[in-house]
Amino acid sequence: MGQDMYFYGRRVCFIGAHPDDIELGCGALIAHIVNQTEILCVTLSDNQKNPELKNLVEEHYRSMAVLGVPKDRVILGQFETRRFPHARQEILEYLIQINRTFQPDLVFVHTKADIHQDHATVTEEALRAFRGTTVLGFDVIRSSYGFFPSFLVEVTEEDVEKKIAALAEYKTYSNRYYFDPKITRATLIRNGAICERPYAEGFDILRIVGAFRCSDS
Question: Which domain of life is it from (predicted)?
C-alpha cells in the first residue's frame, strides 16, 4: 500500500444541481470531513415546480443532517430544473457570489462526464466562477457516461453507513435503482479496490491548484 497524499481545505464547497446530487456523489466524503472543516452545500434547484416532489426539500435537509451538515450550511436555489442552459449567465453570477462570500479552498461539482444538461451547466459555470480554486468532479451514476475516478479519498465503514442512511431519507426516490444501498456500497468498495483501500469516494480532477513544498517533518 502506497503512502497517502494529504490534502485539506479550511472551507469546502459542494455544489449540485438538484436535491440528492451532492449526497449521491459526495455523501461518504462529507461524513468523513464534516467535523474537521467548514462545509457549505449549495443546490441550485429545489425542484418544487414538480408537484410530485413536494417533500423533496425537507428530505434534503434531513439527508444533510444525517451527514452532519446543519440546515444553516445548506443553500437551496430557485433555478428551474432542466432549464439551466437558459439561465447560464445567472448561474455564473450566483456562483461568483458564493465564491466571494464563502471563499472556498476546495470545490466539488458534477463530473464533466455527466450528460444531464443541468449538471453540465453547473460544472461549466463553476469552473469559470472558481478560477483560482481546486475543483473536483463527483459522479451521479444515473447520468454520467465514461466517468473514471482519478482522485480517490479513503473513507470508513461509518462514513459508508452514513451515506446510505442519508440517501434513505429520500422517501420520494425510494424505488429508484441508484438509491439501492447495495449499489452505494458496491460503488464505494469498487473505488476502494482501485486504490487498495476498503472504501473510497471517487472524483475526477477538473482543476488542481497547488504549491510543492519539501519538509522533514
Answer: Bacteria
